TrEMBL record:
Residues 18-34 have a biased composition (Polar residues). This is SpoVT-AbrB domain-containing protein. Residues 1-34 are annotated as: Disordered. Residues 1-17 have a biased composition (Basic and acidic residues). It comes from Amycolatopsis minnesotensis.
Length: 159
């Protein structure tokens, strides 16, 4: 019998596991060919570039590839703002911040504190080529987004 607290998944992992058939074995099945993913929706050819990176004690993001994709060079002036727990970075000719001389994006301490970004945190960085901006999301925001996405799938499939 399922307890009330078990009725709703508690995390993205719980939710994904809850979509399995009740009697499905937990072990991997042997197949003769490579498994293929079933696409739920058509793939979109967006203009976003994604990378997962870490942040160091000085606020620098380890992966510089999003800046290169956007064409942001060292000493390029930028404006960095917090939007909830996300960080939004745009280029501005008179921006108060800049890409470091080594080509790193450095998030100032006040932004890191507001967004609760700690040293070593894994972050999802999305560079928008169309809008010439960069968005930085902490893992907790990514997890919440994935959980919401899987919830919508669950409700859609229940109809």
């Amino acid at each position: 019998m399922m307890r009330a607290k078990d009725a709703e998944p508690q995390s993205i992992e719980d939710h994904i596991l809850s979509t399995r058939s009740p009697g499905a074995p937990q072990t991997r099945q042997q197949t003769k060919s490579l498994p293929t993913a079933t696409l739920l929706e058509p793939a979109q050819s967006g203009t976003l570039y994604f990378v997962v990176t870490t942040i160091d004690s000085r606020g620098r993001l380890a992966d510089r590839s999003p800046l290169r994709v956007l064409g942001w060079t060292p000493d390029c002036t930028i404006t960095i703002t917090a939007l909830g727990r996300a960080v939004i970075v745009v280029t501005r000719s008179a921006g108060p911040d800049a890409v470091t001389r080594q080509g790193h994006l450095r998030l100032p301490a006040p932004i890191r504190h507001v967004c609760r970004l700690n040293t070593g945190a894994r972050l999802l960085v999305a560079a928008s080529l169309d809008r010439d901006l960069l968005a930085v999301y902490p893992g907790s925001s990514v997890e919440a987004s994935l959980l919401a996405y899987h919830e919508t799938l669950r409700h859609r499939d229940a109809r």
